[in-house]
Amino acid sequence: MKLLFVHNRYGKRSGEEIMLDRIVELLRARGHDVDTWFADSADIEGVSGKLGAAASGICSPSSRRAIASRIAQDRPDIVQVQNLYPLISPAVLPVIAEAGVPIVMRLSNYRLVCPNGLFLSHGQVCEACSGGKEWNCVAKNCENDLFKSAAYAARNAFARRQGYYRDNVTRYYAQTEFQRSILVRDGYPADRIDVIPNMIDVPEDAPEWTPGSYVGFVGRLSHEKGIDTLLAAARRTPDVRYKLAGSLGAYEGRSDIPGNVELLGNLEPDELARFYREAALIAVPSIWYEGFPGVMIEAMRNARPLVVSDIGGLPEIVGGGRAGVLVPPHDDLALSQAIATLLADVEKRRELGEAGFARVKREYTRDLYYQRLMATYERALSGKQQGAPR
């Protein structure tokens, strides 16, 4: 199969793009002819660059011409798209569809219904823009920058009114059933949205189980990741060691970090692998609708039990709590109690860790991802051939 991947890279590499690169690598390893057409937001410089990006996010004539030329030259069987903002713009979608090439879109966030893609405004979950109310992004100044908030709102509203996504994408695939339900609720066709969870390399046998010695966290240290809740839980459990790995952001140099919390910053891959192995449990205290945090399946691959916020699609990833303990978001008391209870029960941690490894092997392997993605591609090709709506 000949595939063309179209994506606008972000200014900073994210877990979303790590997974995109893994998908391309997987398809190439299975013998498919995969080409890429990427733009890069890191190239945007100065006021003129930002103004140009705001305009191109609505419609980029140069991108439309470039994609038309690329399609005519390469004739891919399928085009897979991910993020199209701000340099490519969803205005390329009708050009691809008119050329008779089916489009598959990976839904790595909520940008089809939320201008910033996160359902997050000023550190709190926000769905105010759902249902075609993008103006709320400006009213709330969700990006703490009125120009940026207005640009995000304008490009989303224009794409919605033009029907760029609904009328031209052949099939979509979400990462969780929760994410799929959000799109369906906002009017996207349920029969054209598949669910393909993320993937990870999984060894044949589970790692040798060890009890571990600290509560671990992996990810960027930011408010929406529940860091304030985790620090409050640490204050409630002063005899428990906490180690937080990831970029420190606004938490660097803060004087109110509890004495039992160690901020490690970013770790090298071998250091991170050891970090998982030596943790007693991994906490994911997010307060927002995460997409599909890689830390969760990484923890399960290492047979580490999880304590996870009961929000968004996170409960799905741990099988409704079979591979981890669910706690309400924002609730540092419940989080501290769950942590203390698990640390006092070695057998329960072993049970959850073993269940996690079994789940990751059953649901999140590269082979399964490939099978699911091929099924989506086949549906896209079949829909095109049968004249199904795109």
Give a verbal description of the structure.
- This protein is an alpha/beta fold.
- It has two domains: 2-112 and 149-199 and 366-385, Glycogen Phosphorylase B (Rossmann fold), CATH 3.40.50.2000; 215-363, Glycogen Phosphorylase B (Rossmann fold, 3-Layer(aba) Sandwich).
- It has 15 helices and 14 strands.
- The strands form three sheets. Strands 2-1-3-4-7-8 form a six-stranded parallel beta sheet.
- It is globular.
- The two termini are 20 Å apart.
CATH architecture of the largest domain: 3-Layer(aba) Sandwich
Q: At the fourth CATH level, what is the homologous superfamily of the largest domain?
A: Glycogen Phosphorylase B
Radius of gyration: 22 Å
The percentage helix is 40-55%
Strand content: 15-25%
**Helix/strand class:** alpha/beta
**SSE series:** EHEHHEHEEEHHHEHEEHEEHEHEHEHHH
The CATH C-level name of the largest domain is Alpha Beta
Strand ordering within the main sheet: 2-1-3-4-7-8
Q: Remind me, CATH topology of the largest domain?
A: Rossmann fold
What profile does the largest beta sheet have?
Answer: 6 strands, parallel
Number of helices, where a helix is a run of at least 4 consecutive DSSP H or I residues: 15
Q: Count the strands?
A: 14
The overall pLDDT average reads 92
N-C termini distance: 20 Å
Q: How many discrete structural domains? A: 2
Describe the structure concisely for a colleague.
The protein has about 400 residues and is of the alpha/beta class. It has helices spanning about 15-30, 45-60, 60-75, 95-100, 135-140, 145-160, 165-170, 175-185, 225-235, 270-280, 295-300, 315, 330-345, 345-365, 365-385; strands at about 1-10, 35-40, 80, 105, 120, 125, 170-175, 195, 215-220, 240-245, 260-265, 280-285, 305-310, 325.
